[in-house]
Amino acid sequence: MFDVVIIGAGLAGAVLAERFATQSDKKVLLVERRQHVAGNCYDKVDGNGILIHKYGPHLFHTDDEEVWNYLSKFTEWQNYQHHVKALVDGQAVPLPFNLNTLHKVFPKSLAERLESVLLKNYPYGKKIPILELKKSSDADLQFLADFIYEKIFLHYTEKQWGQTPEQISGAVTARVPILIGRDDRYFHDKFQAVPARGYTALVKKMIFQKNIKLMLNTDFHEVLNIHGHEIYLFGHKFYGRLIYTGQLDELFDCKFGALPYRSVKMKFETIHAENFQTAATVNYPNDYDFTRITEFKNIHPVQSSRTTILKEYPQEYVAGKNSPYYPLFTDEAKAAYEKYFEELKNLPRVKAVGRLAEYRYFDMDDVVRRALNVFAELSA
Ligand code: UDP
Question: Is the distance from the beta carbon of residue 101 to the nearest atom of ligand 1 less than 6 Å?
Answer without folding.
Answer: no
